[in-house]
Amino acid sequence: MKLQQLRYLRAIVNHDLNISAASKSIYTTQPGVSKQIGLLEAELGVKIFERKGKNLNAITSIGKQIIDEGMKMLAVEERIYAISRDYLNPEGGCLNIYTTNTIARFLLPKTVEKFVKKHPDITFHIGAAHPDENGAIIKKGHSDFSIVAQDVERDKDLIVLPAYKWSLSLILPSNHPLRKEKDITLEMISKYNLISYDSGSTGKIAQDNAFAEQGIKPTYFMTAMDVDVIKQYVSMDLGIGIIATIAAKQICDGDIVAIPLEGIIPDCDAWICYSRNVFLQKHMYDFIESFAPHLKQEVMEVIAHSTNNEIFKISQEFELPRY
């Protein structure tokens, strides 16, 4: 068995059993990948994949176990390389972060600005992914960690920590009738077409739940994940918007104003997530603490050896930033 064969396995799984796509992703030929998988199966004496003609159709039950153990071996290999890199060049490297457009645009800049003064040789890759994909992206090894404003499915290989609380705000034209109201209610808001986040996003779920609890069925004229898109259609007077307060504060101008909805729609949670297999270097600890001051290195080191239930209990003691 060779580590390269395990890398081929990982690529195949990451590309939904499509050998052609897998081979392109690792810059090798499709016949070469097929041959190595065949040699691995012959060496082990079991079939890892079920086949339909020349195509892989499914992963066998024993194949799932083999792949799971193989991914652990690759994770150990990556940790060994990370430890070596940290020893040889503790102030170098690239931080791979997957996050939402709102976080990357409105929250990360101050953290990055502060961080690079201390670690000028670190570079960044900021990747964007749909919130539902973040757990998978981390486990596939595409990011060091992810910062998301969406609940992430927890499992034993993923550490999920609360980063901050965030609220929603109403954005509307400066001459809108609701600006004259002293105490805005959901009933008042529901009388107008709404423009907000996509269904399934945390912000939209929070809105839906708040309206449902009062038996109100609002009309959504449009949903989108980009706050600039939402603002554009609000400025055209096609509806009023509901977006994250941190974004509303920065994109509103004289023509578009923001009204906080704290106490009307419950706050939402944002999370920092990373694989238990990631070797956290000193600059990674510093970056996380710069973004979420309650996540100090000594706390993170305790969390590294804690179960998910223990992490949940530890998290209850955190005093979270609010945006």
TrEMBL record:
InterPro entries: LysR_HTH_N (IPR000847), LysR_subst-bd (IPR005119), WH-like_DNA-bd_sf (IPR036388), WH_DNA-bd_sf (IPR036390). SUPFAM superfamilies: Periplasmic binding protein-like II (SSF53850), Winged helix' DNA-binding domain (SSF46785). Keywords: DNA-binding, Transcription, Transcription regulation. Residues 1-59 form the HTH lysR-type domain. Pfam families: HTH_1 (PF00126), LysR_substrate (PF03466). Signal peptide: none annotated. One of its GO terms (biological process) is cysteine biosynthetic process. It comes from the Bacteria. PROSITE patterns: HTH_LYSR. Belongs to the LysR transcriptional regulatory family. PANTHER family: HTH-TYPE TRANSCRIPTIONAL REGULATOR (PTHR30126), HTH-TYPE TRANSCRIPTIONAL REGULATOR CYSB-RELATED (PTHR30126:SF6). This is Hypothetical cys regulon transcriptional activator. It comes from Photobacterium profundum 3TCK.
